[in-house]
Write a structure and sequence with these properties.
This protein is mainly α. The chain has helices spanning 3-24, 30-54, 59-82, 88-94, 96-111, 123-140, 147-184. The protein is globular, with a radius of gyration of 22 Å. The N and C termini lie far apart (57 Å).
Length: 198
């Protein structure tokens, strides 16, 4: 296997394992939850840097990374809520960014998927993810959750959610107009070259 392919598997494997960790977290025992959470937090910090350092950034990684993040965070939040470790209000507060992104995605599917561009990484989203993982570490590793951690994670998450929604709705009309323009532009065949007379 070429070295570049191995690097690609390493970088994207970190992200894929975080997705798997989110899917299995609700069904794991208490002994496994702390290692899963620590792995998810560390892999979220390093997977992007690893792919850039190895020169294997790809569309697959850019799509997989936010899916893995949201899957893991929401899986842990709903598990904490189901086991009565957090309230429904705390779940909505801390997970506000993720619920906002899911709502925007649902609107995109219903209205016009091509009008919504892929949302690039934003500093508000990175700060929200950091706050969420701090909250989860507090809730799982060092319970009970400190009120300051709830407010920090919740406010960062809400700010990121508002930021994502504003950016999405600000860019969607322009993108839709471009899509419609492209669809109305007639496709013409390339002009034939005139033959030179003999």
């Amino acid at each position: 296997m070429p070295l570049r392919a191995l690097f690609w598997l390493l970088a994207n494997g970190l992200t894929l394992l975080r997705l798997v960790a989110g899917l299995v977290y609700p069904f794991s025992s208490a002994a496994w939850r702390v290692p899963l959470l620590i792995y998810a937090a560390i892999s979220d910090l390093i997977d992007g840097e690893v792919s850039r350092r190895l020169g294997v950034t790809s569309m697959t990684g850019q799509i997989l990374d936010p899916i893995a993040d949201k899957t893991f965070v929401l899986a842990v939040l709903f598990t904490l809520w189901f086991e009565a470790d957090v309230t429904a209000l705390e779940l909505l507060f801390v997970g506000a960014r993720d619920f906002a992104v899911l709502a925007v995605a649902a609107v995109a599917v219903v209205i016009h998927p091509q009008a919504w561009t892929k949302m690039p990484p934003r500093i508000s989203g990175k700060l929200a993810t950091g706050g969420q993982f701090l909250f989860l570490l507090n809730a799982v590793v060092w319970p009970p959750v400190h009120p300051g951690t709830i407010w920090l994670a919740g406010l960062l998450s809400c700010a990121a959610g508002i930021d994502y929604v504003l950016v999405a709705f600000r860019t969607a009309p322009r993108n839709l107009a471009q899509v419609e323009l492209n669809s109305e532009t007639p496709q013409t065949d390339a002009p034939l070259e005139e033959e030179n007379p003999a």
